[in-house]
Automatic annotation (TrEMBL):
<dbReference type="GO" id="GO:0005634">
    <property type="term" value="C:nucleus"/>
</dbReference>
<protein>
    <recommendedName>
        <fullName>DDE-1 domain-containing protein</fullName>
    </recommendedName>
</protein>
<dbReference type="GO" id="GO:0003677">
    <property type="term" value="F:DNA binding"/>
</dbReference>
<feature type="domain" description="DDE-1">
    <location>
        <begin position="3"/>
        <end position="131"/>
    </location>
</feature>
<dbReference type="Pfam" id="PF03184">
    <property type="entry name" value="DDE_1"/>
</dbReference>
<dbReference type="InterPro" id="IPR004875">
    <property type="entry name" value="DDE_SF_endonuclease_dom"/>
</dbReference>
<dbReference type="InterPro" id="IPR050863">
    <property type="entry name" value="CenT-Element_Derived"/>
</dbReference>
Amino acid sequence: MNAAGGFVPPTIIFPRKNSSEQLKKGAPPGTLFAFHPSGWIQTELFTKWFDHFLKRTNPTKDSPVLLILDGHHSHTRNTDVFIKARENFLTILCLPPHTSHKMQPLDKTVMGALKTFYSEEIRLFMRAHNRAVTHFDMGELFGRAYTKIETAERSIKGFSTTGIYPFRRDVFSDEDFLAEQQRHHVPHSVTADFPENNEPALCHSPNILPKDIAPIPQLKKK
């Protein structure tokens, strides 16, 4: 979403290898569908999303685009995306670690509401059909929930409450920074050993899967 109230169609990642037209039924128009066994964002999938974003925003020399991201490794260690950004008049800004819950517009005004509306759609579906939700139902249920949050008001408010646009230096108080420092402070006496291949967490907010927005409930056997 942007500070003017617009939205780029979303991307849905299904935890499977193969596509199916049934999975796409009822999803928001223009949705990009991706597939991976883990269901998580990967560097290659983020590159596909970036192409999707470029096509929808069409940045130019006279109308460049600023893309604000969290620090997930698929964003920060993606050479293909960096090259495409330079070639297409797009600047990428990554938020500092552990700040997306305060500084990311999407987190502030959209994701909480989307989770609520999606959970309600699942509840209504199960009541009406007397069965559990499957992957083939999720596109339509997500589409209904997404329609309710895709509003200019939410988008504009997300950028204003974070102080990004209109720009406000004083949107956060000294207490906000102090509380964050205390929350992540590690006493000097505490040490920990980490495996060499263990990557540090770069982002406060994890990637969100459809099943994480509202875990698919199971019907109780009578």
